[in-house]
Design brief:
alpha/beta, two-stranded antiparallel sheet, 41% helix, 8 strands, 207 residues
Length: 207
């Protein structure tokens, strides 16, 4: 989904790719107009215990979970602007390496192994392939990712909604605990997402 947006007299494009590297790569390749910068924005999972929920990761460079030999550096001018934008709204942040995986990484031991192998601070499922596509087109790249789950978050909980409980009241006893875990996961996710807006607004004003 591509939307043309305006902010304080400046035009930019918002491109929603969906989840995963294949969709992200296709989305960037689908751009039929020239752009100056591709900025990967979204969530990420922490790979080190010092990163906490809602903390910003300004993407200094990206790497693939399957090929640690190809490291793509972000535009350092944009990186500095992103850091300044985060600091201006008091948003804790780090500049770090982001690794892109084709599958979700939730288990604590898998996070540790991935961190050890590629020396990344956080993991997502889109940024590195977007960086590759940007490099192929001669476009600057950078990223701003918010930590939506930490190394202590555990595996992705089973999705349980209120409708399923209402349809089967006898199962409430068994499904209440999974429902509360899912509800807490969603609550934390949207808490993290909400941290992006102030930093992005300030970044647009600096750009």
């Amino acid at each position: 989904i591509l939307r043309r947006c305006f902010f304080e007299g400046r035009e930019f494009l918002v491109l929603r790719s969906g989840i995963g590297p294949d969709r992200a790569a296709r989305a960037v390749r689908s751009l039929d107009r020239d752009v100056d910068l591709i900025l990967s924005v979204g969530t990420s999972g922490a790979l080190t215990p010092d990163l906490f929920l809602g903390q910003m990761v300004v993407v200094g460079e990206t790497v693939s979970a399957t090929d640690s030999g190809e490291v793509i550096k972000s535009d350092q001018t944009v990186v500095r602007k992103l850091v300044h934008a985060c600091n201006k709204v008091g948003q804790p942040n780090i500049v770090g390496r982001l690794v892109t995986s084709a599958k979700p990484v939730f288990a604590r031991d898998e996070r540790q192994k991935l961190h050890t192998r590629v020396c990344a601070s956080a993991v997502d499922m889109e940024s590195h392939v977007m960086a590759i596509e940007a490099k192929n087109r001669g476009i600057s790249f950078a990223g701003l990712r918010v930590i939506s789950d930490t190394v202590f978050s555990g595996p992705l909980p089973q999705k349980v909604d209120l409708k399923s409980l209402a349809r089967n009241p006898l199962a409430i006893g068994k499904k209440l605990a999974p429902f509360m875990k899912w509800r807490n996961f969603i609550k934390q996710f949207f808490f993290a997402i909400g941290k992006l807006d102030p930093a992005l607004v300030n970044f647009l004003r600096l750009s």
